[in-house]
Design brief:
By secondary structure, the protein is mainly alpha-helical. It contains six helices and three strands, in the order ββαβααααα. A hairpin with a 5-residue loop joins β1 and β2.
C-alpha cells in the first residue's frame, strides 16, 4: 500500500516491489491512479507465496475505510478490529463497561 501525494492510499500487488514503486513514481503509466498523485511512499507491504491469497487480500483492503487502512499501517491491531464493519455493527461491548 502506498500513500499518494494527495494523502490517498493505493493498494496493489506485484512480484517486484522496488520495480513497481519506481514505475509509480516515474509515471510510466499515464492512466494509472497514481500518475497525477506522485510521488508515492510505501506505507505497508506483505509477502505471499500464493498469488491468489495476495489478490484476495488486495481486494479486501481496497474495500476498507481509510481509518482501517491507517490502523493496518500503524499496526494498531485493536483499532483494526474496531474499525471493521462487522465489529461496528455486531461488535462486543466494552469489557470495562460490564464491570
Amino acid at each position: 500500500m502506498v500513500e499518494c501525494s494527495d494523502a490517498s492510499y493505493y493498494t496493489g500487488i506485484t512480484n517486484n516491489l522496488n520495480r513497481r514503486l519506481s514505475e509509480h513514481n516515474s509515471g510510466s503509466d499515464q492512466k494509472s491512479y497514481t500518475y497525477t498523485r506522485r510521488p508515492v511512499v510505501l506505507k505497508w507491504f506483505e509477502e505471499f507465496t500464493d498469488p491468489n491469497y495476495a489478490i484476495m487480500l488486495e481486494k479486501q483492503i481496497k474495500g476498507w475505510s481509510r481509518r482501517k487502512k491507517q490502523a493496518l499501517i500503524n499496526e494498531e491491531w485493536d483499532d483494526l478490529i474496531k474499525f471493521s464493519r462487522n465489529y461496528s455493527r455486531f461488535g462486543k461491548t466494552d469489557k470495562k463497561s460490564k464491570e
